[in-house]
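Title: Prediction job returns without error message
Component: structure pipeline
Severity: low
Priority: P3
Assignee: unassigned

Description:
Job completed but the reporter wants confirmation the result is attached to the right record. Sequence as submitted:
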Amino acid sequence: MRIFPPEYETFNRGHGRIEIRKIQTSTELNDRIVFPFVGQVAKINRTVYDLSGKLMREEKVYCVTSLTPDKADAQRLLTLNRGHWTIENRLHWVRDVTYDEDRSQVRMQEGPRVMATLRNLAISILRLAGVSNIAKALRHNQRNAERPLEYIGL
């Protein structure tokens, strides 16, 4: 087995830890992988230390993507992988915590899908208006029925 040096590496310090991410990419496995439209594969190593330098955890993640190296080099793939959590934190977490979606009583027919769509719409409108704290904005807007209409220009 050949060992390749990482093509790209990031170093982040914050939230009480030091995180090092390394990525290696390859197209050599494209013909052997049963995956539609495979463009390349990647291995991401994540190593997390506390601020004193003590190892907290180490992870290896293997990825398959349809993005070819000319569309996404190693740096871009690592950025996309890291950006995945932005969606989780900015949308799903808000739906889970602020809207308490998991305890919703709406469970029949198209109701859950409609409510999820309405929640997503409300979050998106508030984000486009520059709101960073959705819960605070919801409390502010519930006191006056005309405030939410101002966000959409009515």
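Comment from assignee: result matches the submitted record. The longest helix spans residues 74-98.
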